[in-house]
Amino acid sequence: MNTFKQFTNEETSVWDKPQEPSLSRNLLNTIKADFEAIFAKDPSARSWFEVLTCYPGFQALLVYRIAHIFHQCQFYWLARFISYLARWLTCIEIHPGAKLGRGIFIDHGMGVVIGETAIIGDDVLIYQGVTLGGTGKQQGKRHPTLGNNVIVGAGAKVLGDIFIGDNTRIGAGSVTLCSVDNDCTVVGIPGRIVRRSGQKVDPLAHSQIPDPVADQIESLIQRIEQLEKPQQISDLQWTPFSVNSSQLAQFREKA
Question: Known InterPro entries for this protein (predicted)?
């Protein structure tokens, strides 16, 4: 299993990169693993024929596997053209230069973008609208690396040459710009870690992802209620009174 290490503040933080998926894996076995991942993670999958004909995520991965071979053989234009056809058919863009592991499932898939230098481990689940992109125009490694058993929620953006540890869950709609350790949950914009459970996450338990925005709103409401209580008490204790003109004149004479 891939490991990440983070040293104390007294030392320089060092991240052990996940090993890149082997490029020598048998193509058919890899496609079979992608196929089996759908039945393992999607309860609505009923038959192999339905998966082959109605799952754009699987179709995009299938075409990517072929385009990636051409890219390795330095037929770059042909690889990009094959990738372009897949994008036109599935609305999913996977650069043929990206390195993807086995057992990957792109659910729904609409709007998914995976950049050229992205690396994805095994058994990764990606939902619609996800971007694994870069943050600049620099050459070399500029896209994220995802470990094994990672889940990336709908609409999430993971940007830059960062590392996402094994069994980590990226919440829907979040924007992750920094590396994340194993077994974490990341939510928000910018993304921040809100849970370090140390346990493998359930890929279908999206309703259990913490909502830090809702928590902050709840905290503010409680604070406002606490501040209003003393004011209510003082309003009850205050008793209005009136002074007539004769009483005011007597007071002035004494003064």
Answer: Hexapep, LbH_SAT, Ser_AcTrfase_N_sf, Ser_O-AcTrfase, Serine_acetyltransferase, Trimer_LpxA-like_sf
